[in-house]
Design goal:
- By secondary structure, the chain is mostly beta strands.
- It has a single domain, classed as Beta Barrel (Lipocalin).
- It is 8% helix and 63% strand.
- A 10-stranded antiparallel beta barrel has the order 1-2-3-4-5-6-7-8-9-10.
- A hairpin with a 4-residue loop joins strand 4 and strand 5.
- The longest helix has 9 residues.
- The relative contact order is 0.18.
């Protein structure tokens, strides 16, 4: 495609949003949302797909967020997080199952990190999970989550979220 065609093709495109778009889990997930994603194995090959939905509510000093993930094999995982932020910009979350995560801003992005027991090729082991969220518009975000054992990626999840 020549340069003039590229300029013409983009002439009718909407202007990208101006200014920083900061992802905060305690605000983004309050309104109803939907999501879609793919699970990949450690080599990057797709092994499963899923749909997600949820919403949250404000509490006195925290946000309560429910997330439901429905995988193409029919398995449904539900998380009910209580999310707190301190005065220094650190975030803490606890799921009703007892899972605890710590989060922090990385520029305009946001990163959750936690450990959990999960099935691995070596039996059930404690794995490290890290999820990075990026806003792409005021109503849309992407996340990339890695599940690691001994520093090796076992699987990853890529999710597209949109507010309803």
């Amino acid at each position: 495609m020549n340069q003039q065609a590229v300029i013409t093709a983009h002439a009718g495109a909407p202007e990208p949003p101006q200014g920083p778009m900061l992802f905060r889990p305690d605000t983004f997930f309050l309104k109803p949302w939907r999501g879609w994603g793919v699970v990949r194995d450690g080599r990057g090959r797709p092994i499963s797909r899923y749909e997600a939905d949820g919403q949250g509510r404000n509490q006195s000093r925290s946000a309560a967020i429910e997330q439901r993930f429905t995988f193409d094999n029919g398995v449904v995982q539900t998380f009910e997080w209580e999310v707190l932020a301190d005065d220094e910009g650190r975030f803490f979350a606890r799921d009703k199952s007892g899972l605890e995560a710590r989060g922090r801003q990385i520029g305009d992005d946001f990163c959750w990190a936690y450990t959990t027991k999960a099935p691995t090729p070596f039996g059930k082991r404690t794995v490290r999970v890290q999820a990075l969220y990026t806003m792409v518009s005021p109503q849309t975000a992407f996340s990339f989550t890695e599940v690691k054992l001994w520093g090796l990626t076992l699987s990853s999840f890529t999710t597209y979220y949109t507010r309803l």
